[in-house]
Structures are given as structure tokens and as C-alpha cells.
Write a structure and sequence with these properties.
Elements (H helix, E strand, L loop, with lengths): L2 H8 L12 H6 L5 H28 L1 H4 L9 H4 L4 H20 L4 H17 L7 H19 L7 H31 L1
Helix pairs in contact: 3-6, 3-7, 6-7, 7-8, 8-9
């Protein structure tokens, strides 16, 4: 076990998905309000931590399947560089810290809690159900946006929610289409 294996498993580069949290503060017109910005940064951090907890949990669940994949077999948990027990402990710690941070921030903890529940079921079941997986991905983005709105305690605009869901569905469907095309291209080789 080494620190680079842990950092690789946290998938820090994926934290960019959490930037949508700042839509709430941008929408509110209070982007320069230091207090609102602090709250938004804290919920951004909480979502980064919980995202990493979810990635670790997913890698633990999928470690045997990942061994059969040409790229995923090199992930630290699948390859044996990082033990499932240590990864599970880190995931639990990250989830608890994330819930603690978000519990101090208005109703934003609800978004983190729902995200954890959604991702648990996604990891064990929903990701294997065609189209349900896409809706789960869209719901994850929507929860991020809602957390960004709830943390600064502004009214939720139906237009903001509708646009977020539609954009998230579009991106999720594009991602799935690219994966299917990639699988088709690999079969031709």
C-alpha cells in the first residue's frame, strides 16, 4: 500500500463534476458574497469527499469484474495494490466527514445523504439496468445543483432544476453512447 494508490483510487480528477454546485451561487446573484461563497466551497468539498467514497466503494464491489477489463484491471483495488479493507475504511471515513461538513450547512446534508443512497444502489444494481443508469447519473448532477442552492438557502427555481436535469441526461446519454461505440470498435479489432 502506498499513498499514490490511495490518491489514484480517490479519482481526484473527477472532482471537476462537482463544479455544478456553484450554479446555485451564480444563479442567486450573490457570487461575491463571502459568506455564500464559503458555504458553497464547503459543500463543494463535502461532495468531493463523498464522490471519492463512492468511487472507492464501487471499486471494492467491482474488483473481480474489473480484473477482466483491459484498463480497469490496473485500478489499485482490482490489482491488489490497495486492500479492500483499507479502501472500505477510507470510504467510510470520507463519507462520515462529508456528512459532518454538510450537516452544518442548512439542508445541504439531505443532498449528500440522497447522493450516498443513490450511489449505493447504483453501484450494486442500477448501473446494470439500461437507461436507469443514465437517470441515476442525471440525478447525481441534480443533487449537486440542489446542494449548491440549499447551502445558501435560496428558493429552488423550477427552471434551474429542469435545465440541470436535461443537461445531465444529455451528457449521460452521450457518455453511454460513446462507451457503446467504443465497445463496438474494440470488437472489430
Amino acid at each position: 500500500m502506498n499513498m499514490s494508490s490511495i490518491l489514484k483510487s480517490l479519482r481526484i480528477r473527477q472532482w471537476t463534476k462537482n463544479i455544478v454546485i456553484f450554479i446555485g451561487i451564480a444563479y442567486s446573484g450573490h457570487a461575491l458574497d463571502w459568506l455564500f461563497l464559503q458555504y458553497s466551497l464547503q459543500i463543494f468539498l463535502a461532495f468531493c469527499l463523498v464522490s471519492s467514497a463512492v468511487y472507492l466503494t464501487n471499486d471494492i464491489i467491482d474488483r473481480k469484474r474489473d480484473l477482466l477489463h483491459p484498463q480497469k484491471k490496473y485500478r489499485p483495488i482490482a490489482s491488489g495494490e490497495l486492500s479492500p479493507e483499507l479502501a472500505g475504511g477510507i470510504a467510510l471515513g470520507l463519507a462520515v466527514v462529508s456528512l459532518y461538513i454538510s450537516s452544518r450547512l442548512s439542508d445541504a446534508w439531505v443532498a449528500i445523504g440522497l447522493y450516498l443512497v443513490l450511489q449505493f444502489f447504483y453501484s450494486i444494481w442500477f448501473k446494470h439496468l439500461y437507461l436507469i443508469d443514465v437517470f441515476c447519473i442525471a440525478a447525481g448532477f441534480s443533487l449537486r445543483v440542489l446542494a449548491g442552492v440549499w447551502v445558501i438557502d435560496i428558493p429552488v427555481s423550477p427552471w434551474l432544476v429542469a435545465c440541470t436535469v436535461q443537461l445531465a441526461l444529455f451528457l449521460a446519454l452521450c457518455k453511454r453512447r460513446a462507451e457503446v461505440s467504443n465497445i463496438g470498435d474494440n470488437k472489430k479489432i
